[in-house]
Design goal:
The complex is a heterodimer. Chain A has 14 helices and 9 strands. Chain A is α/β, with parallel strands linked by helices. Chain A is globular. Classes of the chains: A alpha/beta, B alpha+beta.
Chain lengths: 387, 93
């Protein structure tokens, strides 16, 4: 349905896949070799100009770790000249106060820093590296230079009990916003699902704690709690609909509707080194594959919710059923919903024997740490390979 | 609560942006934006932390002399409360 593209509001610029962390739920592609090295400064600046011309007003500079690009200052300045609201999404490593001051002076608007939990052991376990002190220091730098701070935490079975402690941490850091986002089981998170998916009871408790904090801190700190679609019974409106509001450009220049879309085989997406962003957004067959409603199967096409959830997540439909055009199995009306129910029944109940002093066994074995698969990297082909 | 003596100031995370695609102003903040109508745009521009809400109403009344004062006041309070609930106003010192 060429020509059906709407106005995009947000450009997600994945500046590099390189990252000092190896998070077990990373949204970067699993086992895919980049088609080329990272885009250069001039290409990114052109992409920003073309994005603004399409209507984009929000820019997320992310990765991998965007701080690993030594041209980040120039990219921020280019974005600011266009009036884009520029948000740096970072692990906080490696960041110095001087560099952050420069980024702010060049026009950076906001910074989002992720933590894996309130303990250093969470960082080691989930990100594969000790990093909490560096992250807390980076968060303090953000406040020191006077930029608004978002603290982002991906929730899963091993940190879902920490919501009150995470709220306290965000308050202590002076965060304007706290994002508590349950893991989405795509990318690296899917092979780790058995270790990461919490039970419904634990999620409900965390949701209640988040609601209480939101009421208490209303007007001071925005608290976002993203429920996992595995427990909602209805799919999430992934990216506000395929190719509707968000443009993702990968480090190697592919223009996508979401971070994971390249995991769906057979979709042809355009690249910014071969065509304009506008052409890639409006005309690529991949971008148009799931726009509108013509692609929808039953029960989506008769469902009143189709204008709210757009049939759910295409990447999740493909990852779980092998068919990207299927109704998202997260929906209770999906013929494949049993796949979700099975995963739920295997969810981790949590540390029942963790109360100090209550160590007598009543038949339960103390919980063992479940093995995790860490994110790895595949190098881009060298320029010589390209030739 | 916002009173007539409050001196509203926009939160640090906000930036007023003129959207050349729609000829309207947007109040941008992390991941989101509010589309402002012309009156809301004028109110936002007056939220400088120096003017009181009363002064903002007087200022607007001078510009929109057709609008009755109490209607205008209600509109200003309503909009400022929306901003406050969304965390888009700084806390008064």
């Amino acid at each position: 349905m060429t020509g059906g593209a709407e106005r995009p509001y947000t450009l997600v610029a994945e500046l590099t896949y390189r990252c000092p962390l190896r998070c077990v739920y990373c949204s970067n592609p699993v086992d895919q070799k980049p088609r080329r090295g990272d885009l250069d400064t001039a290409t990114w600046r052109r992409v920003f100009r073309e994005a603004e011309a399409l209507g984009v007003v929000q820019l997320h500079l992310t990765g991998g770790e965007p701080l690993l690009r030594d041209d980040l200052e120039d990219l921020v300045a280019g974005a600011r000249e266009l009036g884009l609201y520029t948000n740096l999404i970072t692990s906080g490593i490696p960041l110095t106060l001087e560099r952050l001051r420069t980024l702010r002076a060049r026009g950076l608007d906001a910074v989002q820093i992720s933590v894996q939990g309130v303990h250093e052991s969470d960082a080691v376990r989930i990100a594969g590296r000790a990093s909490l002190p560096e992250k807390l220091e980076a968060a303090a730098f953000v406040r020191e230079v006077g930029l608004p701070l978002t603290l982002n935490v991906v929730l899963h079975a091993e940190n879902i009990e920490q919501v009150p402690a995470l709220v306290a941490l965000a308050e202590r850091l002076g965060a304007a916003r706290l994002e508590l986002a349950n893991t989405q089981y795509l990318g690296w998170a899917l092979p780790n699902r058995a270790a990461l998916l919490p039970t419904e009871e634990r999620i409900n408790r965390a949701a209640k704690e988040a609601r209480e904090a939101r009421d208490r801190l209303q007007g001071k700190m925005e608290i976002l709690f993203v429920l996992p679609d595995y427990y909602r019974g209805v799919p999430r409106a992934c990216m506000g609909g395929w190719g509707k509001q968000y443009i993702v450009v990968t480090p190697d220049g592919v223009v996508l509707p979401c971070h994971a879309a390249r995991s769906i085989p057979g979709l042809a997406f355009a690249t910014v080194d071969e065509t304009s962003l506008e052409h890639a957004w409006r005309e690529s067959t991949g971008m148009n594959a799931f726009r509108g409603e013509a692609w929808m199967p039953s029960p989506c096409r008769e469902c009143d919710r189709r204008t709210q959830d757009f049939g759910g997540c295409r990447c999740q439909a493909f990852a779980l059923t092998g068919n990207a055009g299927a109704t998202d199995p997260a929906c209770r009306l999906s013929p494949d919903h049993a796949l979700i129910e099975r995963a739920r029944s295997a969810a981790r109940p949590g540390e029942r024997n963790s109360v100090p002093g209550e160590s007598e066994h009543n038949g339960d074995m103390p919980e063992q740490l479940v093995e995790l698969r860490y994110r790895t990297f595949r190098a881009a082909p060298s320029p010589r390979d390209d030739a | 609560m916002i009173s007539t003596e409050t001196k509203p100031r926009l939160a640090q995370k906000t930036r007023l942006h003129f959207d050349r695609h729609t000829n309207r102003h947007l109040l941008l903040y992390p991941e989101k934006g509010l589309v402002l109508n012309p009156t809301a745009t004028e109110i936002v521009k007056l939220c400088d932390g120096a003017r009181t809400v009363s002064e903002i109403v007087v200022d607007l009344a001078a510009r929109y002399d057709a609008a009755p004062r109490d209607v205008l006041e209600k509109e200003v309070f309503g909009f400022l409360n929306t901003l406050r609930e969304k965390g888009l106003l700084e806390d008064p010192p």
